[in-house]
Amino acid sequence: MIRVLCQQLAPVLGDAEANRALSLGAIRDGVRAGADVVVLPELVTSGYMFQSADEAAALALTPDDELFAAWAAEAERGGALVIGGFPERGGDGRVYNSAVLLDGTGVLGVYRKCHLWEREKLWFTPGAEPPRVFDTRHGRIGVLVCYDLEFPEMTRLLGLAGAELIAVPTNWPRVPRPAGEHWPEVGIAMAAARVNRVYIACCDRAGRERGQEWNQGTSIISPDGWILDAQPDLGSAGAEVDLRLTHEKAYTGLADAFGDRRPELYGAVSSPSGVSPTV
Amino acid sequence: MIRVLCQQLAPVLGDAEANRALSLGAIRDGVRAGADVVVLPELVTSGYMFQSADEAAALALTPDDELFAAWAAEAERGGALVIGGFPERGGDGRVYNSAVLLDGTGVLGVYRKCHLWEREKLWFTPGAEPPRVFDTRHGRIGVLVCYDLEFPEMTRLLGLAGAELIAVPTNWPRVPRPAGEHWPEVGIAMAAARVNRVYIACCDRAGRERGQEWNQGTSIISPDGWILDAQPDLGSAGAEVDLRLTHEKAYTGLADAFGDRRPELYGAVSSPSGVSPTV
User: Fold this and answer.
1) Which of residues 259-278 of A touch B (CB under 8 A)?
2) Which pTM value belongs to this model?
3) Beta strand B81-89 with B37-39: parallel, antiparallel or unpaired?
4) Which of A15, A142, B118, B161 could join A255 in a cystine, given CB atoms 3.0 to 4.6 angstroms apart?
């Protein structure tokens, strides 16, 4: 069993120092609370509501930035993993909406968001690589960022690649929902967790930034698709999870979430013209 | 605007005559209530809880069975479409878990369930063709059957192929759910509707059959992923739907549910070995 903890924070747009203190404190608090995996929001080092590419670029970091060494030092106190979002300056000079995964030994990997939401397209370059599964001290962890989650191909890809936990730093701008319903992105995560039999930990943000509010929808979801813990306000959501449960894709001896797939029929997913549109 | 109506019925296992009367009455009632599209449950002509392949085969029908001509005659009274499930005897002598789509002119098409749930594998042959979109008098309609829905590739395929409405005859055996949550299959349908911007109409069944109860989860879901109407008991769920809403896949001028896809990155979905499992 490991303890997964999401820290729903309120970063301050453009204030790298404030966000440094915020993120370090959140990791420290999480580790003290016994977390093995600490998930932070998307773009936690910078804030989200940029108004220009220059503004985003000015806050971009490389994965060897001293900030991540400081995150790693905090993680090391509890042997924890940390996943959190940041604007990344690539070796190519471009700026990506990325998430770093690290432990006390340093950065284990960086994932660049493949599906950029809305005006992010004006200041970020989309990732060119599909998501990977990182084999860590605390399990096989896939990383997506926010809008990626709304493409079921992405969660399926990670599920098939053996992910036990998908960590999703996110900034979900506030959207409408009917009374009694989950945030739509949470519902999508619940469905993805269930059909892929994986844990999904979505870490949203709080606060108000240039007038924008957020769903504050942080949720940790079981392989059955149910919410283990959620956090509607500033603060954390945490759950003890048994990653071995994700190894069992069979529902019964005669039904299997993965074994029952018919990939030979799914080719048209990437080429819809291959599907006869009429009777 | 068209009116979609699902009839959550309680077929009688093995009693073709009773089920004939039940299905004809349900179509008649639906058409009288103004339905343009009437969806009936999976295997509505036969019941579900077979104990042998012989039992299923004995109830299998061909699409030119007189029953479907009778369905078509009822449909014709209101210019309606009907989608409903039946055990199909194929030209190859095999038995399929199928759904027929018909209107007053007769059978427009048959879809054979591609993903067989559990013991269905003991008496049915899985469909060999991916689902299609049928261009009908009441819109572009895709048909799936029950467990198919739990494979997001299937709903994606129909969405990309231009489906406006996905009709899903189903028999959902009763499963656990936490208080306040939707049935898991309904949650999966809600997520699929939202990410594909399509309507989904799931028609479940009621009653008890050889000790088995059902979710009774009939639900009609909007392209935003919300439930327009549901039926927890015997009876119907109905909604007026504007199929044109499904033509708009854009969320904003800078975000598009389909245009933002990255199919060049999804290849690994069908070949997980293509994904690096470690950092």
Assistant:
1) 260-263, 265-270, 272, 275-278
2) 0.96
3) parallel
4) B118
Put simply, whether B255 touches A (Cβ < 8 Å) is yes
Nearest CA in chain A to B152: A152
Average pLDDT, stretch A178-182?
98
Which residue from A126, A161, A260 is facing B277, i.e. has the nearest CB? A161
Residue listed under structure tokens 């190859």: B92
What stretches of chain A show up as alpha helix (H) in DSSP? 16-32, 53-58, 66-76, 120-123, 152-160, 184-196
Give the number of beta-carbon pairs within 8 Å between A and B. Answer: 199
Residue position matching structure tokens 């049928």: B134
Q: Collapse the DSSP code of A45 into the 3-class scheme (helix H, G, I; strand E, B; otherwise coil) and give the result.
A: coil
Residue extents of the structural domains in chain A: 2-253
Contact flag B133-A275 (C-beta cutoff 8 Å): yes
Pair of tokens at residue A194: 């269930």
A247 touches chain B (CB under 8 A): no
Provide the 8-state DSSP code for A145: -
Copy the structure tokens of residue A224. 């059955």
Given the residues A6, A114, A120, A146, the one annotated as active site:
A146
Report the residue count for chain B.
279
> pLDDT tens across A158-174, in order?
999 999 999 999 999 99
Q: Which token pair is A183?
A: 């945030």
- How does strand B235-241 pair with strand B2-8? antiparallel
Of A118, A135, A254, nearest to B255 by CB-CB distance is A118
Mean pLDDT of A262-270: 78
- Quote the pLDDT of residue B268: 55
Report domain B2-243's class: alpha beta
Residue A171 in contact with residue A214, Cβ under 8 Å?
yes
Residue A267 is predicted with a pLDDT of 82
One of A42, A164, A185, A209 is an active-site residue; which one? A42
CA distance linking residue A148 with residue A169, whole number of Å: 10
State whether A275 and B132 contact (CB < 8 Å). Answer: yes
**Contacts for A92-95 with beta carbons within 8 Å, 24 or more apart?**
A94/A125, A95/A53, A95/A56, A95/A57, A95/A60, A95/A123, A95/A124, A95/A125
Q: What are phi and psi of B133, to 5 degrees?
A: -105, 125
Ordered DSSP codes for A203-241 = E---S-BTTB-B---EEEE-TTS-EEEEESSSEEEEEEE
- Residue A268's pLDDT is 55
A235 and A8 in contact (C-beta within 8 Å)? yes
How does DSSP classify residue A179?
T
2.130.10.10, 3.60.110.10, 2.40.110.10, 3.40.50.1820: CATH of A2-253: 3.60.110.10
Window 193-222 of B: residues touching A by CB (8 A cutoff) are 194-195
- Which residues of B does the annotation mark as catalytic? 42, 113, 146
Cβ of residue B179 closer than 8 Å to a chain A Cβ: no
Q: Looking at the complex, does the CB of residue B187 fall below 8 Å from at least one CB of chain A?
A: yes
Nearest CA to B200 out of B181, B173, B174, B218 is that of B218
